[in-house]
Amino acid sequence: MDVALSVRDLRAYYLTSHFGVEREVRAVDDITLSVEKKEIYGIAGESSCGKSTFIRTIAAAIRPPLRVLGGSIRYSFLDRDLYDLDERALTEMRWKHLSCILQGSMNVLNPVRRVRESFKDFASPHMGLARSVFFDAVKAHLNRLRLSPTVLSAFPHELSGGMRQRVAIALATVCRPEFIIADEPTTALDVVVQKDVLALILEMQREIGSSMIFVTHDLTVHANISNRLGIMYAGRLVEEGSTRDILRDPMHPYTRHLIASLPRIGDVTPKKGLSGAPPSLADPPSGCRFHPRCPLAMDICRQAHPELTALAPGRRVACYAVSPLVQPAHEAAAARKATKADKSAAFLQ
Amino acid sequence: MKEWPRASLLGAEIEFASMRTYARYFLRRLGQFVFVVFVGINIVFFVTHATPVDPVEQAISSATQFGHSDPRAVEIMRKALRELYGLDGTILQQYVRFWTRLATGDFGPSLSAFPTPVSVLIRQSLPWTVGLLFTSTLIAWGVGNSLGGLAGYYRKNRLLKAVGIAATGLQPIPSYIMSLVVLILFGYIWPILPISGGFQMNVSPDLSIPFVSSVIMHSILPVLSLVLITIGAWFVGMRSLVSNIVTEDYVVYAELAGVNRRRILTSYIMRNALTPQLTGLALSLGAIFNGAIITEFVFGYPGLGTLLVRGVNSGDYSLVLGIASISIVAVATAVFVIDLLYPLLDPRVKVE
Amino acid sequence: MLRVFRDLFRYNREFAAGTILVLIVLSLVVASFFSPYPPQDSYVVPPDVPPCWAYPLGTNSRGQDVFWQLTVAIRNSLLFGIAVAFLSRIISLAIGLVSGYTGGLVDRVLMSINDTFVVIPQFPILTLFYFMMHDHMSWTLLALAMASLGWPYDARLIRSVALSLRNREFTAQSVFSGMSTRQILLEEHLPYVLPIVFSTTMNNINWSIGLEVTLSVIGFTNIETPTIGTMIYWANQHTAMVAGIWWWVVAPVATVIMTFIGLFLLSVSMNEFIDPRSRLARMGV
Fold first, then answer.
1. pTM score, two decimals?
2. CATH number at residue C189
3. Consecutive 10-residue runs of chain B (352 residues): their mean pLDDT?
4. Least enclosed by CB within 10 Å: which of A252, C124, C252, C272?
5. Nearest CA of chain B to the CA of A188: how many Å?
6. ipTM
């Protein structure tokens, strides 16, 4: 399979200083993952686990105090790392190759301008069409999304929530980008509209044939849309696998908890909450960040962070309790370095 | 998936809904306008009638303080003044007459420029004040907001930072002090501009080039003072508005889409910051008006401010009363006009 | 408290500059108590002496030492500003808290009146007030008149805070525990609102000193009370600028500008300090 996006050891922190109090919030810590072409990669985790920061980082939408401190982000349509692009190349790439559907699409459209203007600003520089042809194309596209062309002359506040979300999807897909990042696009919608919108996103993604990262805390949504799933906890990826595998056989205790807390028809056993709150990313726990809330916590969990280890084809987990193959991250890194050094030494000889 | 029934109807529906909300908005604003005038005029009535001093007696005592007067003549004078000031009859009659006078714009003759009616004096000075206010507010609001917007967007720009410090320093300086500083600077230290009056006395006031240029030259310093007084607040306000708006979803989204930077700054950020700044303008018109009439007094500009001070110093009750009332009506009207402009900038007309 | 002050001073340039300016002004106020002669007396020193060692800010045409006169003038002006701010704060607190907490019709009526007071130009009304009072005009009366015009901006601010407090859980709890409205407002809500009131006080002091200066300079107050405004008034009466006695005008103008900027900077930094966003960032949540 071709890889559409490959992220390696990505680290992005918020660095702030207020009245002499300096803080470092480790919102994204050492994340490595790859998204294949035409795949929908889901990312799940509770609020403030770093999902949105991760999204912002791979969309090159960071601004201080958020900073990328390390790692690489490579898209198949770029010839170099995302953060090696200059301003112009970035602008060129946006929307043509990489577009986004954001959380709270209620507010992604400029409230004081008509929808038409947004289409013009967003899409027309990338499509390079004459004005009338451009709007014909936009109207055709709206039609595919079952939107009347009259929405173009409406102001955002004149549209219902569901319609606004459709407009946002139309806006994100009108340039037929290779990669789409969707950040909680259905969260603020009511359940019925949610279903329609999901179907629409799937339909568009299939038609255009783009790859997608789909972020939501809602596992039932993932069950319906994502091919593969990455579970994030406190800024780190703790488990990854095909959606089916993860939902059927969760391995990481945190994933297990997430899935156990899903409501099931006919299930009358009381739901158990997880003790404690998600850790502060400004001062994360030592070792595995989940250990203070983990029922399986051992000594080593407190000392060193577990490496996200491939335990089966397409299945990675970062938990010592799951398999003895899981090593502390720093040892794994040292081992990797050693093999690399061996190889390069062999090469030199 | 089903067709959305609303979509086809949308156009007509929107037109109708926005017409109706606009009408409701208009009525609410009109109500507020009437209320402001009502309360303001009542304050004026209260100030003139609840204070222990009788303006008639005051005028008489200042007229008779030099030398002895015939008591009969004084009595006639008293009666005439009472009638002139609308201070005869019961308090209720006075109240009704007070409103009638305001409604007809007839405040009686001025005592200091007898028998010219107060309304004529006000009509002569009002254009000067309005011109001064309009020009300076337009410049201060326009320049302050533009620079403030740029400063909020380009936070690291050295020049804009310096402007920011200057604006912060200017913001709290009250009108009188600012005018005085400008007067000292350009009247004594670097005397290049006329510091008093509205135009040169030896130029005949008609639409000729010398007259117009004289008017412009004379207005530079008052306008400059007024601009300096208000520009800091617009600058600082706009800068903080913009630094909040840059984190709004629609700005982040436009940046993600690689929309042209300048377009983002103008159509997405500044455009959205303008609406609260327009509300701010409506709210601070009263204060700006205060500043204008004080500045007029400092520069001897022939507007309402100078007229007001002259009225006080010559004990002209009708004139002072007239100016106070007209000021309230004028400011309320200006606020009303701005309120009506508001929906042009923001399509989401507020209906509660 | 002391730590907060130290941190603010060290890390917030506005606060540091504001504090220094206000301290300079305050030291003038303190100095006023050591004036070698009553500040009202004229012809106690040779007139029209430019600034020199004996008279650091020179003397004026009425034979007064500008420096000592200035110390008393700034003391009276500051006192005036504080008095107006204090009185108008009481009004804005009462209106803001009641309006925000009660809501409904009361809120609508009070806010309509509030917005009216925001819009109405105060200067002509104060002038009219002076015109009616003339010789009866006093420091206290002017302070009262200005306090009754200077409350609406902050009343609206306080109302918006009170409105958000009303929907918090602790308010409901107080209601259930049988506290009266007055008790809830005074004991539960007032402490939340006070920091905001504190920062707006600075601006209100500025506003009232500014208006007082203006009214005094035109001669619309009791011109015998030495304030910054009356000082400039007497200088103008003696056409000090034309006569070249610039120090008589420049000294009060510079002092009052220092006061304005100092208080304003304090209010700005205070605002930033109580802003919940910056507060969260400091607490390290």
1. 0.83
2. 1.10.3720
3. 42 62 86 92 87 76 70 80 78 86 84 83 92 94 94 89 89 88 86 76 72 85 93 92 88 87 91 90 90 90 91 87 92 91 77 42
4. C272
5. 14
6. 0.85
